[in-house]
Amino acid sequence: MRIDVVSIFPEYLAPLRLSLIGRAIADGALDLRVHDLRDWTHDRHRTVDDTPYGGGAGMVMRPEPWGEALDALLDAHGAESAGTTDSADGGAAGAAGGAATGETAGDRPVVLVPSPAGVPFTQAQAAELAQRSRLLFACGRYEGIDQRVVEEASARAEVRMVSIGDYVLNGGEVAAMVMIEAIARLIPGIIGNPESLAEESYEDGLLEYPVYTKPAQWRGREVPEVLLSGNHGAIARWRRDRRLERTARVRPDLLAALEPELSAADRAVLAALAETSAPEAAGRLAAPGAID
Fold first, then answer.
1. pLDDT in tens, 111-122
2. CA dist list (Å): 231 to 189, 227, 234, 278
3. Residue 182's closest CA among 6, 31, 16?
4. In this structure, are strands 60-61 and 49-50 parallel, antiparallel, or unpaired?
5. How far apart are CA 111 and CA 9, in angstroms?
6. What does pTM read for this prediction?
7. DSSP alpha helices (H): ranges in 143-231?
């Protein structure tokens, strides 16, 4: 997979070259390229922003440098997909037809624009994007990127405005790092033990169970006895119960989608939890079909 990131603070992305993601980059499993948006400016001040039309506070990122940056990066992708090294030919094909010759919808580059106005980023999206061959993150600053950039890029790529949470950041770099790590770790070979991905939070709609390691007793606190029993069936049930309990307490909204799939044992766990919860939560958690 190739991931391009365009930012006015390219050094912000340096931490991605650490740990497992950094090793994947060094080994060639992941091709990460970070670009300075100001390289596509042409004035002495390397200007990337201006005042918003219609008035208002803040500044808006100008379309010209963003347009040239996306032209260069998306046209290069078009040339590669068409099997030619002539970026000019690739650019013409991309601008005229939206996708290069022989390129399927799944091969089209995905341009991700981190934005609090975007759709929520989820584990399911991360898994889907991990199957793509080319991603490009457009990291905005100030009040955001001129909307015409998003509209124009849609002619040559799949463009998604994505949010990592209900809050506002100073720029898109931190959000891009979050998404890149979430996506890259799902690429086969990045994580040493693929089985460790199967029981993580959100993989099946539940949060992850609590984990423990040696020593068995620490500061008067003991590891749950079942985990020391060697009874794999009992351990599996214990972990499932803890996942249900944690999800019910922390993210009860996630249970709505799972309600049809809950077993009798699952419902018993939630009912027992409801008895010790606030009265208003009890009815919602205990009654089958009443999770909302």
1. 999 999 999 999
2. 31, 8, 5, 34
3. 16
4. antiparallel
5. 18
6. 0.81
7. 147-153, 173-184
